[in-house]
Amino acid sequence: MNSTETEPEAPAPARAGAPARRKSLVREYAEAIFIAVLLALVIRQCGVQAFTIPSGSMMDTLLVGDYILVNKFLYGAELPFSDVHLPGLRKPERGDIVVFKYPNDESRDFIKRIIAIGGDTVQVQDGRVILNGRFIEEPYVRPGSIPAAPSGHCGYLYGCEPLTVPPGMYFMMGDNRDNSQDSRYWGFVRAEKIRGKAFLIYWSWNGDSHWPRWVRLGNWLP
């Protein structure tokens, strides 16, 4: 039997004023979820990221159970899977509370206060800081974490003697001076390892009383 080919039937022209075919509900939800996730990832990577405080090294400025927001745009957003940063608004400064990659294990994030920047000479005596030859006032230090009388003993690995911070590096310390693993024990932090500046406590949970610390909610960090 002979077969013959027939031309495909042409589609019928759309009628004027006919409503466009709507996307399926599943596809609409999928696209909305995809866009939301994409925006969340971009904001987390380049803008603001949430962290929680697991230890008391920054008491009383930050307490265990505080939830904070960190500005990653200020110093320059990180490019994914690298230490490369986009241009920022400014460089980290003395007194900034920053989140950074822990030098001894970069899979962990630490939070401390910048005490000295590149070019500064820093020395620490009984938890008190001598910066460029002069003791500095530190109202943020936890009361009682610095001895009232000098002991004359120094057990730190870094900072017992005047130490010059190399360019592009930072000397970090916790506000709770007698309970903080910081630059006194593991040295400097490179600029590219700093992830951002902490700026807001948006939630705080007291694990002992199992109750929110309402008074801390919305507190801005200097």
**Helix and strand composition category:** alpha+beta
**Beta-strand content:** 25-35%
Query: Which residue ranges are poorly predicted, with pLDDT under 50 across at least 5 consecutive positions?
Result: 1-14
Quantity of strands, as a count: 13
Which radius of gyration do the C-alpha atoms yield? 27 Å
What's the shape? globular
The helical percent reads: 10-25%
Distance between the termini: 89 Å
Number of helices: 2
Largest sheet report:
9 strands, antiparallel
The mean pLDDT is 86
Summarize the helix and strand pattern as letters.
HEEEEEEEEEHEEEE
How is this structure best described in words?
Helix content is 12%, strand content 28%. It is an alpha+beta fold and 222 residues long. The longest helix is centred in the N-terminal third of the chain and has 22 residues, at 25-46. The radius of gyration is 27 Å and the shape is globular.
Topology overview:
Blueprint: H1 25-46, E1 48-52, E2 66-71, E3 97-101, E4 109-117, E5 121-125, E6 128-131, E7 134-135, E8 163-164, E9 169-173, H2 183-186, E10 189-190, E11 194-206, E12 211-212, E13 219-220
Antiparallel strand pairs: 1-2, 2-11, 3-4, 3-11, 4-9, 5-6, 5-8, 6-7, 9-10, 11-12, 11-13
Keywords:
222 residues, alpha+beta, nine-stranded antiparallel β-sheet, four-stranded antiparallel β-sheet, 2 helices, 13 strands, 12% helix, globular, disordered N terminus
Brief sketch in words of this structure:
The chain has 222 residues and is of the alpha+beta class. Helix content is 12%, strand content 28%.
